[in-house]
Design a protein that fits this description.
Mean pLDDT of chain B: 82
GO molecular function, one term (chain B): ATPase binding
Structural class of chain B: alpha+beta
CATH superfamily of one domain in chain A: ATP synthase (C/AC39) subunit, domain 3
Shape of chain B: extended
Membrane topology (chain B): Multi-pass membrane protein
Protein name (chain B): V-type proton ATPase subunit a
Mean pLDDT of chain A: 85
Keywords (chain B): Coiled coil, Hydrogen ion transport, Ion transport, Membrane, Transmembrane, Transmembrane helix, Transport
Radius of gyration of chain A: 21 Å
Distance between the termini of chain A: 32 Å
Number of strands of chain B: 12
Radius of gyration of chain B: 42 Å
Largest sheet of chain B: 5 strands, antiparallel
Oligomer: heterodimer
Strand content of chain A: under 5%
CATH topology of one domain in chain A: Topoisomerase I, Chain A, domain 4
GO cellular component, one term (chain B): vacuolar proton-transporting V-type ATPase complex
Order of helices and strands of chain A: HHHHHHHHHHHHHHHHHH
Largest sheet of chain A: none
Number of helices of chain A: 18
CATH class of one domain in chain A: Mainly Alpha
Low-confidence stretches of chain B: 152-186, 673-693
């Protein structure tokens, strides 16, 4: 029933949409970034942030401040907001919101598994995990020796279980395996999320499919670039691409056989939306690609707010806030290490 | 008009005369000067560094230090409230300490407190571990005994305990007591420990999966709550014992235990060893408890000493922060030796400010004095009304609608009386009025005590408006006496009733009515009318007409105030083309109605006023017949109608056209003038904050605005008059509601001869009176009175687009909630 959401959307979703739009207006503005970039010390940053919505989260921090504290507190605010929204949400919005966290969950699983592989302390690893991707038995991940155990012991209880069907092997875990596992999981997750959004229908499906397709394509490009020069075969590489998105299926075929960054570029330039991204980057360069992709993503996420009565705003808000925290982290790092000239290298402005 | 000119100046009607002033303060006396100004609290400094972000300002370091100090103070407050110490602010110790000293002292206290916290934290952790160990010993011992009894003797030999790898210092005493026997064979072993109750289920499942079911899990609730080291809350815990076999399984289980945050403690096999261990642990526990208690006492003492000073410190830091925030608003002059500030102050306060500044420069031994002088201003000054304890609440009521434009007529002056009065017209019952009076008197008599403490949001509101409530109650009593209602019961206070029944049984009072046999009742409504046939028609007619009279007079007052405003600002245009047609329009229609009402009351005529008013429009020349009230009525009506019709275009058209004419005249021949004036401006006074903006005259906008205004007034004249009928409607509703409660509850219950029913009836009556009539009805009458003031009265003259005068004042700073 596309186009008729306006009739009934507000019954369950109206309050939360208002909340999320309110949160969105609390994102840091251009002048905030302007001021932040002029800070001399982390205390200046704290002082400036205390005038924003981050104020209550930072005001009780003792003064020699660390970048990690800033990031931790800012993330805490995002988590608090997310939890509030999740508490208020009804089906299917609550499922939608939970879907958003699965990505963080995958990252956390990979982080813990890699960490244990390198014999790190579990508690230390747990502190590094994103709080949105936590689940009960996450610490037990350290027990597992191979994929099969990982699945059977721990992940079977988590929502990630269905995504695991493709990567159950008895091989011992190593870095390569884990990376493949991450991408396989991510592929399954994106596809599942995509199907879920399609099932919701309406504007949610329309906007989310656009956003998720962009995400899938970006991952495809990243996988390709990262796997250039590794022992990953073409077929294996091909298997890691999500089965939707603008590049699917012909772009994937071409990406799978790409051997260097310029080939990737020539593939991508056939797609008008990505042409502009690659147009910003000079030949042979992959460093700035991340930033270009982030900028494009932020633009799309902001556009999601232009339409009403759909769930993509929640996704977009979480992503934007995350980007903002990334920006804050970068700025505070630069300030802390006296590299202020490099601030603009990685900050993606959100307006 | 001559009469108005001779009136004394109306000081209370206008906000204070404000002036824009500039202060130039040498740096060395800046801090003292600003803090003196803060004590005085009569100068509002403008932020001259608006384009600078907070950390680029001059005194950012001091602000940061204050922020850091207030963080420490918040930390102390937190600790104090956690420790459950009631802070008794002791005003006795008013020793003056300066900021540096305070800073040092605060960080000392913080370090001390943090150390104590860390120590007690450590102790507490040890204590918790021992406590857990004790619980495990008690519970797990039981399992083991049971297991031993059931197991085959051969197997039991192999059972042995495994050490958890935990190398906490708490376990050192255990090391000599139990030595694990080297396990040569893979037999049945066990691990015992304790885990959060909430995690227990997943823990068991995980163990089951990890060992593929080759384990035996035993658990029992710990019975005691143990403090969680992370959150500091008490949590329910469960003691468990896992039996398993094999070295690999042991590693796995230990890892899982670690992952789940379960603490493992070894339990010796034999009963005697267990007993011995339990004794030792208990002994140590009691020792630790003593130590912990001592530590707590010490900490509480330290906290109590902080608590006694905390309030003073908080105030002091707040003041300092306020001073530096204000200093940050000032600009450096070219030489960097002086700070320059601009701001508003009431003109009357200039000498006071000057004096304070002089004191400041003397006290700080400054060589150079502080310069304080006036500036020209082109922006609208802030609005500042001096209020006292009595008028404050009324001013708040007006400000809630909008802060008055600078030197605009202040409706609060009239609201002091009209607001409670209109309320009382709707709430006329002297019984209820007495209750309100009692309530407000309690608030007023305990003013000192209540004012100093924090109240709930509702009480805060009632307390803030205590004088409003007092006046409302007094007027309610007055109106109640006129309506002759005491909890809806009429009383014969002012003499004998003028009416009597037709016969002795008085049964036909409802149907046939009463007979008048003497002079009318001297004050208010005749008590005998209650329940008679003519009661409702009479009261309705009385209250309706009264509402219209009150409404027309209040609206007229509003329009007259707009005249005073126009005269004050010297705008004859507004007088001629706004005030005059408005006055004529309103009074030719509704003023006339009010006149008819008064004539009807005086003459006792039977004329139908609806008819008169309606046919005045429909058929102005028709014969009035029996509705004629006075000679020449028809001619007067035609004249009034014509005046009203003329008044509409009068207020609509001339003003915008005249404005346009004035505008074009002003700019005629200015083509060469602009350059000259702008140069002259620069020469004239470079210091003045002169921000001349070119006003564009947009005729269509002005015209549309005037059209909206006129239409609003014309339609509003009708609807606002009708709106005043709410006075009648609410008063009717109030009296009917209280009659229902009185007759259907109290009298009904009184009819029974049972004490219980009577008491129950009385209770329900009291409850309904208190909550429905005294609280809800008060609220509704209050809101309606508020509306009548905001819309019907203030809409006639009030702009309300000014901004409040917010001086830098320590007193306001201290009141501010943090």
């Amino acid at each position: 029933m596309y186009g008729f959401e306006a009739l009934t959307f507000n019954i369950h979703g109206g309050y939360l949409e208002a909340i999320v739009r309110g949160h969105r207006s609390g994102l840091l503005t251009a002048s905030d970034y302007n001021n932040l970039c002029q800070c001399e010390t982390l205390d200046d940053i704290k002082m400036h942030l205390s005038a924003t919505e981050y104020g209550p989260y930072l005001q009780n921090e003792p003064s020699p401040l660390h970048t990690t504290t800033v990031v931790e507190k800012c993330t805490l605010k995002l988590v608090d907001e997310y939890k509030h929204m999740l508490c208020q949400a009804t089906e299917p919005l609550s499922t939608f919101l939970e879907y958003i966290t699965y990505g963080y969950m995958i990252d956390n699983v990979v982080l813990i598994v890699t960490g244990t592989l390198h014999e790190r302390d579990v508690q230390e690893l747990l502190e590094k995990c994103h709080p949105l991707g936590m689940f009960d038995s996450i610490a037990t991940l350290a027990v597992a020796q191979n994929m099969r155990e990982l699945y059977r012991l721990v992940l079977v209880d988590t929502p990630l279980a269905p995504y695991f069907s493709e990567c159950i092997t008895s091989e011992d875990l190593d870095d390569m395996n884990i990376e493949i596992m991450r991408n396989t999981l991510y592929k399954a997750y994106l596809e599942d999320f995509y199907n879920f959004c399609q099932k919701l229908g309406g504007a949610t499906a329309e906007i989310m499919s656009d956003l998720l397709a962009f995400e899938a394509d970006r991952r495809a490009v990243n996988i390709t670039i990262n796997s250039i020069g590794t022992e990953l075969t073409r077929d294996d590489r091909r298997k890691l691409y999500s089965n939707f998105g603008l590049l699917y299926p012909y772009g994937h075929e071409e990406l799978a056989i790409s051997e260097d960054i310029d080939q990737v570029r020539s593939v991508m330039e056939k797609y008008p939306p990505y042409q502009s991204i690659f147009a910003k980057i000079s030949y042979g360069e992959s460093q700035m690609l991340d930033k270009a992709f982030y900028e494009e993503e932020v633009k799309r996420l902001c556009l999601a707010f232009e339409q009403q009565f759909h769930y993509a705003v929640f996704f977009a808000y979480m992503r934007l806030r995350e980007q903002e925290i990334r920006n804050l982290m970068w700025i505070s790092e630069c300030v802390a290490q006296n590299q202020k000239s490099r601030i603009h290298d990685s900050v993606v402005f959100i307006f | 008009m001559k009469l108005f000119d001779d009136l004394p100046s109306m000081d209370h009607l206008r906000s204070e005369d404000m002036s824009l002033v500039q202060v130039i303060i040498p740096v060395e006396s800046a801090h003292r000067a600003v803090s003196y100004l803060g004590e005085l609290g009569l100068l509002q400094l403008k932020d001259l560094n608006e384009d600078k972000s907070p950390f680029q300002r001059t005194f950012v370091n001091q602000v940061k230090r204050c922020g850091e100090m207030s963080r420490k103070l918040r930390f102390f407050g937190d600790q104090i409230s956690k420790a459950g110490i009631t802070a008794s602010p002791c005003p006795a110790s008013q020793q003056v300490i300066d900021l540096e000293e305070l800073e040092v002292r605060l960080s000392e206290h913080e370090a001390e407190l943090l150390e104590m916290n860390a120590n007690s934290e450590k102790l507490r952790q040890t204590y918790n571990e021992l406590l857990e160990f004790k619980l495990v010993l008690l519970k797990a011992g039981g399992f083991l005994v049971a297991a031993q009894n059931h197991a085959v003797p051969a197997e039991t030999e192999l059972v042995e305990s495994i050490y958890s790898k935990k190398d906490d210092e708490s376990l050192f005493l255990l090391e000599q007591s139990v030595q694990p026997e080297p396990s040569s064979k893979a037999g049945l072993r066990f691990i015992s420990g304790i885990i959060c109750k909430s995690k227990e289920l997943t823990f068991e499942r995980m163990l089951f999966r990890a060992t593929r079911g080759n384990m035996f899990f035993n658990q029992a609730p710990a019975g005691e709550q143990v403090m969680d080291p992370v959150s500091g809350e008490m949590v329910e815990k469960t003691v468990f014992v896992v039996f398993f076999s094999g070295e690999q399984a042991k590693n796995k289980i230990l890892k899982i235990c670690q992952a789940f945050g379960a603490s493992c403690y070894p339990v010796p096999e034999e009963n005697s060893k267990q007993m011995q261990l339990t004794r030792e642990v208990s002994l140590r526990l009691s020792e630790l408890e003593a130590t912990l208690d001592a530590g707590n006492r010490h900490r509480n003492k330290a906290l109590a000493s902080i608590a006694s000073q905390l309030w003073n410190w908080i105030i002091m830091v707040k003041k300092e922060k306020g001073v530096y925030d204000t200093l940050n608003m000032l600009n450096f002059d070219v030489t960097k030796k002086c700070l320059v500030g601009e701001g508003w102050c009431p003109t009357f306060a200039k000498p006071q400010i000057k004096e304070a500044l002089e004191h400041a420069s003397i006290h700080s031994n400054s060589q150079v004095g502080i310069i304080f002088h006036d500036m020209d201003s082109f922006e609208s000054p802030p609005t500042y009304f001096r209020t006292n304890w009595f008028t404050h609440a009324f001013q708040e009521i007006v400000d809630a609608y909008g802060v008055a434009r600078y030197q605009e007529a202040n409706p609060a002056v009239y609201s002091v009386i009209t607001f409670p009065f209109l309320f009382a017209v709707m709430f006329g019952d002297w019984g209820h009025g007495l209750c309100l009076l009692l309530g407000s008197l309690i608030l007023i008599l305990r003013e000192k005590k209540l004012g100093s403490q924090k109240l709930g949001s509702f009480m805060e509101m009632a307390f803030g408006g205590r004088y409003v409530v007092l006046l409302m109650a007094l007027f309610s009593i007055y109106c109640g006496l006129i309506y002759n209602e005491f909890f809806s019961v009429p009383f014969q206070i002012f003499g004998k009733s003028a009416y009597k029944c037709r016969d002795s049984s008085c049964s036909d009072a409802h149907t046939a009515g009463l007979i008048k046999y003497r002079d009318p009742y001297p004050f208010g409504v005749d008590p005998r009318w209650r329940g008679s046939r003519s009661e409702l028609p009479f009261l309705n007619s009385l209250k309706m007409k009264m509402s219209i009279l009150l409404g027309v007079s209040q609206m007229n007052l509003g329009i007259i105030l707009s005249y005073f405003d126009a005269k004050f600002h010297g705008s004859s245009l507004d007088v001629r083309y706004q005030f005059m047609p408005q006055m004529i329009f309103l009074n030719s229609l509704f003023g006339y109605l009010a006149l008819l009402i008064v004539i009807k009351w005086c003459t006792g005529s039977q004329a139908d006023l609806y008819h008169v008013m309606i046919y005045m429009f429909l058929n102005p020349t028709g014969d009035l017949g029996e509705n004629k009230l006075f000679w020449g009525q028809k001619e007067l009506q035609i004249l009034l109608l014509l005046m009203a019709i003329v008044a509409v275009p009068w207020m609509l058209f001339p003003k915008p056209f005249i404005l346009r004419k004035l505008h074009t005249e002003r700019f005629q021949g200015r083509t060469y003038g602009i350059l000259g004036t702008s140069e002259m401006d620069v020469d004239h006074d470079p210091d003045s904050a002169r921000r001349q903006h070119h006003e564009d005259f947009n005729f269509s906008e002005v015209f549309v605005h005037q059209m909206i205004h006129s239409i609003e007034f014309v339609l509003g004249a009708v609807s606002n008059t009708a709106s005043y009928l709410r006075l009648w409607a609410l008063s009717l509703a109030h009296s009917e509601l209280s009659t229902v409660f009185y007759e259907k509850l109290l009298l009904l219950a009184w009819g029974y001869d049972s004490v219980i029913i009577r008491i129950a009836g009385l209770a329900v009556f009291a409850f309904a009176t208190a909550f429905i009539l005294l609280m809800m009805e008060t609220l509704s009458a209050f809101l309606h009175a508020l509306r009548l003031h905001w819309v019907e009265f203030m809409g006639k003259f009030y702009h309300g687009d000014g901004y409040k005068f917010k001086p830098f004042s320590f007193k306001l700073l201290a009141d501010e909630e943090d």
